[in-house]
Amino acid sequence: MMRKLVLSTATTLGFNVGSKRASLQFGVILFVLLLLAPISGAYALALADIELSSRLNEPLNARIPLRAFLATDMQTIQAGLADDRHFSRAGLERSSILSLLQFTTIRNQDGSAYIRITTDAPIDESFLSFIVEVNWSRGRILREYTLLLDPPVYVDTGSAMVAPIKEVAATADTTGAAKPSTSGSTPEKSTERVRVSSQSTSGRSDGTNVS
Fold it and tell me: Following DSSP, what letter does each residue of the chain receive, concatenated?
């Protein structure tokens, strides 16, 4: 395609390829076109950072947004897990749990696209490290990703709610224990007073009977 473009440009300008001047100008045009060629490569497909939407002991649900892709690329994009050779080069172990990963390329109505990574079974490993390989009509790209799966949120929330309940119960017990001790001392004094007055009265009666 580059050759056709150069020949078409030379013909349009009316160059005589046999002359030295035309050959020089033709070489300059070819050099400029070669410099511009890598610019188109700057718009090659790229993989963004992974976005995780699941937690430990849940089916995996993650996505990798696609960047700088063409509309025609969506018809040829094939995403998946890289083979053992690429894992070995990266110093990673291709564990058996990685075979559960399923890759699907999805394009949204707004024109954006992403690679969805899911599993049918829950993932019970908190740490996953793998390499994604994407092939399309204009090339291939590899990228390593690492996922850290946190425990479900409801576990932390439940433990946080237990502490205040215990604290309130302890306060109620302390308050309840203080009241009986105070009220208990008062009746004892009242009883003593009643008994004393009762004894003095009976003493007076006994004295009257003796006389």
Answer: -HHHHHHHHHHHTT--TTSHHHHHHHHHHHHHHHHHHHHHHTTS-EE---EE---TTEEEEEEEEEES--GGGGGT-EEEE--HHHHHHHT----GGGGG-EEEEEE-TTS-EEEEEEEEEEE--SEEEEEEEEEETTEEEEEEEEEEPPPPHHHHHHHHHHHHHHHHHHHHHHHHHHHHHHHHHHHHHHHHHHHHHHHHHHHHHHHHHH-
Domain ranges of the chain: 2-41, 46-153
The Cα–Cα gap between 94 and 202 comes to 101
Please give the Cα distance from 9 to 179 (Å, whole number): 104
Q: Which of 25, 96, 19, 24 is nearest to 9 (CA)?
A: 25
- Tell me how far apart the alpha carbons of residues 4 and 6 are, in angstroms, rounded to a whole number: 5
* Per-residue pLDDT tens digits for 103-122: 999 999 999 999 999 999 99
* CATH class of the domain at 46-153: mainly beta
Mean pLDDT of 171-183: 49
Higher pLDDT, 138 or 115: 115
Indicate whether this model's pTM tops 0.90: no
